Amino acid sequence: MAQPRLKDIADALGISVATVSNALGQKGRVSVELADRIRIEAESQGYAPGGPGRALRTGRSGMVGMVVPDLTNPLFPRMAQALERECASAGYDMLIADSHGDSSAQDAAILRLVRRGAEGIVLIPRRGTRIADIPTPLAVIDTPSTHRNDSSADHFQGGTAIVAHLTGLGHRKLLLLGESARSPVQTDRIAGMRAGLPGSATAEVAWLERDGPDVCAAAVRRGVSAIATTSDLVALRALGCLDAAGIAVPGQVALSGFDDLVFAPVMRPPLTTMIADHAAIAAHALAALVARIEGRNGPPAVRVAMTLIPRASTLGSQKTQQEMTTC
Known about the structure:
This protein is an alpha/beta fold and 327 residues long. The protein contains 14 helices and twelve strands.
């Protein structure tokens, strides 16, 4: 159904569009009685003065759009909530769209939000997709290695930190496990993990998309004592595979994730993970977007440090250095 216009309200009451605009904008000389009739009619038609009405008065909608790759992934609603809070504080409304993991759907979602009045778009791109040129200001939340990235967690630093945690517990043979090598976020996390390995430690790299979940049990049988994954969702799949193979976590192998998703603290065992400061990431992305909307130079891109949350999936697996080196 088409959104009601000021003209629809004016036609219903037999008055001018200017009078309707003045009444809804609380400006000009409109009697209290007529202003009340206009507001009642606007409400009955489902008219939303915050968007189209504001655009008519100021030339701006006060609306920003956000496109995420998959709303079924608990990480993205969390980021959307953080951005919505920042928008509310800055006096903006927010529209959200899901690209469903498809590059063409991503482009279509951006254009759909622009047509609905979004002055700018905050985009979390689907892995492996090209960020299209669009006729509206854009801010990107992804990873520092992504072209046009504005704000993100420091995924490389997060990878380094999780491996420092595991090797600090004495682990010297690790499996670094991601879901897809096509994901810049995951490849940056793996790169950080590899960079964080001390000279006395070794690591294998595997991808579920290519190698399948059985790679976890096979690695443990080869002597791997810790599995560092690129997300809590990957860790959950790894835990299922290990459990099916009769391999205990953390008794026989430590396991870690990324993102501190809602299920991480209630897994059995609770999952050691890394968490990002979503509020800081959202605040910087919106600052960059608003600057572009207003024709100003935005702030430089930032990477926000991630924080370790240690739990039983690794802390319950401490062994002596001698035990690790003889596995």
